[in-house]
Amino acid sequence: MTRAHSSIEPGGGAQESLEARLAKERRKFAILAERSYFAQQCLGACPLGMAEDLRAYGLSLTRRSRAIPEWAERWEEMHALVERLVAAPAGSVFLRDSATAAQATVAASVEPEGERRRILVGEADFHSSRYLWRAQERRGFEVVEVKHDDFVSYVDERVRIVAASLVSPRTGAMIDARAVAQAAQRSGAIFVLDAYQAVGVVPVDVGALGAHVIVGGFHKWVGGGGTGLAFGYVEPALSASLEAVFPGWMAHRDVMAFADRFEPARGAEKLQQGMPAMEPIYTTRAGLQWIAAVGIEAIRARSVELTSRLYDSLTEAGLTVITPRDPEKRGGMLCVDVPDGKHVVERLAEEGIDIDARPGAGIRIGPHACSTLDECDALARRLAEVTS
Known about the structure:
The protein has 388 residues and is an alpha/beta fold. Helices cover 38% and strands 14% of the residues. The strands form three sheets. It has a seven-stranded mixed sheet, with helices on both faces.
């Protein structure tokens, strides 16, 4: 089946300011009319088109077996949308239910090689990923946790896998992924990059980043409505050498053949597994289409503008921001060190302002690209008042 790409083309006149253009886009996100929403890093605002796709999914359920061709078309379209989002070649992306599952699929295909048995993991990376990589010790690996910005100095001939987050979920700091990729290539290590906290707010170009594997998902910055869907990109040269250790029928060369013996699909799709959850396949599409229409570079530029305004306002109010000030070294959120972050989150939620808190990260603030500078200023004022 030929994959369909989004028909939406970038809009907005060349002379129209980015702020004005995104102000017009704001009406496409219902929650932005109801709340001052700064929790993109947790669950991103969904475009109105998501509800339409959800209704389409509901109608497909009533058709039962007659819906299978439509589901297959949506499944193929999702691959194409993801490949477009991360500038990946056709056939280099596979879909799984979580980023951890995508990482596990790759991990299972890699064995220690003599003295090359180390896995480097970021100590401030997502806990689910760290659980997975630590568990590889029972397969003969040695797991070493390193600081978020210190991977390059640890990469040597003993390292088999470098597993890092592009943007740390605990600090909002962004690593120099290209430098890590070059170090991994020089030493012969496999670089697995978790881009979950970057996808949808920071440009993710697989060629520019240089990682062998990139995983990510959609319910944060992309604004995918449902959970249970993630992706993995695998560099074609590496993909050719990886064996599908735990294959399922969605990894077969011909899914509808219902064959008795497994024949792996070409490229990264051989790393897929069983029947996927179709609801997030439907409810993620609108967010991906919106990003394609607006442009990730525009979204990133506005995010930097908003977070820079917040950074200045928060520090002027005497609050400690643990995220780097330099926009080149941070993703789309700011982490602020405050006592009793949970209480602060609950207090602001009562006032219609949404942020979140995580252990070791303080409170986390992630504005939507359609948020306003006035909202940023108001949030900074209230945080100063609530925490004083």
